[in-house]
Please model this.
Amino acid sequence: MSVLIDNYTAWGWIWVAVGMVMALAGVGVLVGSRAARLTGVCLAAFCLVGQMIFLPVYPFWSLATMLVSVLVLYGLLAEPRHVHGARV
Model:
């Protein structure tokens, strides 16, 4: 057992709460909110770092989640090409 993970149930609820905030930020990104885009970047970075804690316990799941987080970061930080004149 890792020193950083003491209570898996508590971590599970933390990730559920983070996931709900991510879903709300995703709706905001679809609407075009710049604040939601920034929130999404922060949450994806938090998820990327947070999954490093779980590498010893769930290596394949953590790596898959880290890959998705990197793709989300790229998607949120890349310049949108389909909207002319839009700024990130």
User: Anything to note?
Assistant: The two ends are 41 Å apart (CA to CA).
